[in-house]
Amino acid sequence: MSPEFHIRTARHAAKPLQVGVRDVNFVPWISGSGTCDGVGFITIKLSGPSARDIKTYGVFIRAKTGVSDKEQFPSYPLAPTRTDRDGTFVTWAWTDISPDADGHVRWRLEIVPVSRSGVLAAPVSICVASDDSCPKLAGDPV
Fold first, then answer.
1. Residue 96 in contact with residue 56, Cβ under 8 Å?
2. Residue-wise pLDDT tens digits, 100-131
3. What is the mean pLDDT of residues 16-38?
4. Nearest in space to 90 (alpha carbons), one of 141, 41, 50, 30
5. Are β-strands 81-83 and 106-115 bridged in parallel, bridged antiparallel, or unpaired?
6. Rounded to 10 degrees, what is the CA torsion of 4, 2, 18, 73?
């Protein structure tokens, strides 16, 4: 899971960096006979000209629709992580989510960048679904 991003009191309120979403890896649950049975996770790859400057911003993940238990989402902003090979991303895990009546999970979420001083940027909407029913990402909107 991505670590918590800590907002601090600052003399000057800086605007948060604008980020987009490049890719989403959504696994609503792992099934099988193992210690990870029932665990799910999401990895959101961030993009944009400022995505690399990960020490200056965090992101709130907000559930909009389709989520039956909002407790599965962190209530605090997540600090992005960067690897040379994979880029910049945020990720978290959960256990025991409830699928829709047809057995699938379909969530509409918002990614909201926040500066170190607590200033929120415009939200970025994303869709994740276990049945690939979400529209494909159009690439980097920035």
1. no
2. 888 888 999 999 998 888 888 889 999 999 89
3. 78
4. 41
5. unpaired
6. -80
Phi, psi (5° rounding) for residue 56? -100, -5
Among 72, 133, 75, 92, smallest CA distance to 3 is for 92
CB within 8 Å of 131: residues ≥ 6 apart? 104, 106
Cα dihedral 33, 35, 40, 42 sign: negative
SS3 string, 81-139, reads EEECCCEEEEEEEEECCCCCCCCCCEEEEEEEEEECCCCECCCEEEEEECCCCCCCCCC
Residues 6 or more apart from 138 whose CB is under 8 A from it? none
Which residue, 121, 130, 131, 129, is CA-closest to 20?
121
